[in-house]
């Protein structure tokens, strides 16, 4: 396809651009929707206003009027009981009723503000309540037991008359508030019916409008876009020789030309990227081979050094036993240095050999971390007994991994916690576990000397030591081996910040899938 070739100019409606189609449709739709929206907004506003009046004013006003009546009845009951018996515990309803009365009156003040009849009723209620309280309630409540009985007897008739007037005022107030509530409810029902009619009409008009818009978009926009999209998907599926048709409005035809130009450039870029990928694959293969050779070299070097080092160690120890104390002090010191250096070299080579085996020699299966932790604790029993260490742990799950490497992981972490203990207290080690998404997070926390924040990354580097060999023996491989083991099993390991003394090391393992568990069970069957 010649992207730059001249094409015949379409006529009529085909000359319309997508923008012209959309602008015309949007303008007509906007005018219609504006009218419909105004009607809907008016209906909603009316309904909302009436709903607020019923829910936030009329109903709460009636409820608080009833609460006011209940509060006054409680006051009358308390005053009458105190006046008849002289017992002050009968004033409890009166005291509680006074607080409820104040709360109800305060609420009614805000709810009936601006309503002439309701405000008038509230003033009448207040006046009658004040007369009753001044004439009977307060004198009785504030008097002593004997005086209260006397006052009640003297003013019994006046007290009943005054409280009956309170009841009449309250009843009149509640009747008026109930009538106002019913009237507002009727207005709300009428507004809701009108709103429903308006929205049904709006929905019908919108359905018709959507049908018109759908037809117009299909005729003027989506048809040409469908053809262009089909061709583009064919190119996306690998048919790079598929030419893209240029049909429809003018801007869509221009888009087709641009996409076709891009397809041509992509074909050329694809050819170059294939060459680059082949080169990258070759470099990746060279890197894998180099890593394998390095691992093999580390294994062979550490393994082959065992025999000559064993001879050096054996002969230096033999030299020490035979000539120790027979030569001068300097000679004994030299022999001791040689024996110590050979022993340390042997330990270092053994650790290096073990480090090189992580990830290279393994037997993947379902592993009980409870069993591996128990094996590690058993291996450290002597060190635990000497140091007085105490180890606690949560119930541990099963994971998919290598039993030996996971046991060695626990052993390294626990032995570090015991080795780097504080001099003034025995080691206390706590192993916890929690579930995080599709991983398990394990935390080994101790109360030892801790790790400074600036060394939290350095401790996982092989042969890195934070203390002298005389203070804390070791080769500096333990945590590096832990890091390699955890990463080989698909997890991460970090030193966490802690509050107070000690060290907290966290590491993660993927949760064992059902397929891995089934494979492990199958491998154990005879």
| Share of residues in helices | 55-70%
Number of strands: 7
- Could you name the ranges where pLDDT drops below 50 across 5 or more consecutive residues? 1-5, 522-526
Q: Helix-strand pattern, N to C? A: HHHHHHHHEHHEEHEEHEEH
Ends distance: 67 Å
Q: Mean of the pLDDT scores?
A: 78
Beta-strand percentage range? 5-15%
How large is the count of helical segments? 13
Task: Assign an overall shape.
Answer: flat
Major sheet strand order? 2-4-5-7-6
Derived from helix and strand composition plus strand pairing, the structural class reads alpha+beta
Q: Taking Cα atoms only, what radius of gyration do you get, to the nearest Å?
A: 46 Å
Largest sheet: 5 strands, mixed
Give descriptors for this structure.
flat; 526 residues; disordered C terminus; 5-stranded mixed β-sheet; alpha+beta; two-stranded antiparallel ribbon; 7 strands
Give a verbal description of the structure.
Strand 4 (428-436) and strand 5 form a beta hairpin. The chain is flat and about 125 Å long. The protein is built from 13 helices and 7 strands. The protein has a 5-stranded mixed beta sheet with strand order 2-4-5-7-6. A two-stranded antiparallel sheet has the order 1-3. It has helices spanning 18-85, 92-111, 116-142, 145-154, 156-236, 250-304, 306-323, 329-357, 369-379, 381-387, 403-419, 478-488, 514-524, and strands at 364-368, 390-393, 398-402, 428-436, 439-445, 493-496, 504-510. It has 526 residues and is an alpha+beta fold. The longest helix is centred in the middle third of the chain and has 81 residues, at 156-236.
């Amino acid at each position: 396809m010649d992207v730059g070739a001249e094409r015949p100019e379409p006529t009529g409606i085909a000359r319309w651009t997508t923008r012209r189609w959309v602008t015309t449709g949007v303008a007509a739709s906007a005018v219609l929707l504006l009218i419909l929206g105004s009607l809907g907004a008016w209906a909603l506003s009316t309904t909302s206003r009436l709903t607020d009046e019923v829910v936030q004013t009329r109903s709460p006003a009636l409820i608080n009027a009833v609460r006011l009546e209940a509060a006054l009845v409680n006051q009358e009951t308390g005053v009458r009981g105190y006046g008849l018996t002289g017992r002050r515990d009968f004033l409890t309803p009166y005291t509680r009723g006074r607080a409820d009365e104040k709360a109800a009156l305060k609420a009614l003040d805000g709810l009936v503000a601006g309503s002439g009849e309701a405000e008038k009723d509230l003033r009448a209620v207040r006046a009658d309540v004040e007369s009753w309280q001044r004439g009977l309630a307060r004198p009785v409540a504030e008097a002593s037991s004997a005086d209260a009985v006397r006052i009640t007897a003297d003013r019994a008739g006046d007290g009943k008359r005054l409280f009956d007037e309170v009841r009449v005022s309250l009843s009149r107030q509640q009747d008026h508030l109930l009538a106002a509530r019913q009237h507002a409810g009727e207005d709300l029902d009428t507004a809701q019916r009108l709103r429903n009619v308006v929205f049904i009409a709006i929905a019908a008009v919108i359905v018709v409008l959507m049908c018109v818009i759908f037809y117009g978009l299909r005729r003027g926009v989506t048809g040409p876009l469908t053809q262009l999209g089909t061709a583009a998907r064919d190119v996306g599926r690998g048919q790079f020789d598929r030419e893209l048709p240029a049909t429809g409005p003018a801007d869509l035809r221009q888009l087709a030309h641009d996409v076709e130009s891009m397809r041509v450039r992509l074909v050329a870029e694809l050819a170059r990227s294939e060459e680059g990928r082949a080169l990258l694959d070759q470099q990746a293969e060279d890197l894998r081979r180099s890593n394998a050779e390095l691992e093999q070299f580390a294994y062979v070097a550490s393994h082959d050094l065992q025999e000559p080092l064993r001879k050096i160690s054996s002969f230096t120890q033999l030299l020490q036993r035979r000539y120790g104390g027979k030569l001068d002090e300097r000679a004994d010191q030299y022999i001791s240095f040689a024996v110590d250096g050979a022993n340390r070299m042997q330990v270092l080579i053994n650790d290096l050999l073990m480090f090189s085996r992580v990830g290279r020699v393994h037997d993947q299966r379902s592993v009980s971390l409870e069993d591996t932790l128990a094996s590690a604790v058993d291996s450290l029993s002597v060190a635990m007994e000497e140091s007085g260490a105490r180890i606690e742990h949560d119930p541990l799950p099963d994971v998919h991994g290598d039993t030996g490497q996971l046991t060695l992981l626990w052993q390294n972490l626990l032995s570090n916690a015991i080795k780097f203990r504080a001099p003034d207290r025995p080691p206390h080690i706590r192993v916890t576990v929690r579930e995080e998404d599709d991983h398990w997070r394990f935390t080994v926390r101790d109360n030892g000397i801790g790790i400074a924040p600036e060394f939290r990354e350095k401790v996982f580097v092989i042969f890195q030591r934070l203390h002298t060999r005389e203070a804390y023996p070791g080769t500096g491989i333990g945590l590096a081996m832990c890091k390699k083991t955890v990463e080989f099993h698909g997890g991460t390991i970090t030193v966490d910040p802690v509050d107070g003394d000690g060290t907290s090391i966290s590491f993660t393992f993927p949760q064992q899938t059902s397929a891995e568990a089934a494979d492990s069970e199958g491998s154990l069957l005879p």
